[in-house]
Amino acid sequence: MLRISLKQPFFTILLAVEILYLALALMIPPLPGWKMFSHVDWVESVSLKDDRGHEVPLRGYLPETYYDFSASTAQSVATFICKKHQEIPHWILQVERESYELQASDCIPRKK
Fold first, then answer.
1. 26: pLDDT strictly greater than 60
2. For the chain, what is the domain count?
3. pLDDT of residue 79
4. DSSP 64
5. 55 and 92 together in one domain
6. Is the pLDDT of residue 3 over 80?
7. Residues 66, 83 within the same domain
8. What's residue 82's pLDDT?
9. Residue 94: half-sphere exposure toward Cβ, Cα within 13 Å
10. Which domain holds residue 59?
């Protein structure tokens, strides 16, 4: 037997409000909604090499479910790797057509 409680109308109203909000978010640009994932910058070619020329896979340092892999994300991950491996003095980050150098002294990506 199905029992109806006082909570059921509340959740029904909450669901209706959520559906209304999502419909409005599709039509009104300033409202965040599902469309925020439609304009994500995605870097196709990226590589990080140490001073010996060995390539380090950046995507191996990201969680399995990441939504953004822009140039700034690649730079942040390269900075993290540089700080983690201070024994390697020099890194080269290649993001599509741009190249960056990272020194172990500060690990800041600088354009070449």
1. yes
2. 2
3. 94
4. S
5. yes
6. no
7. yes
8. 93
9. 13
10. 46-111
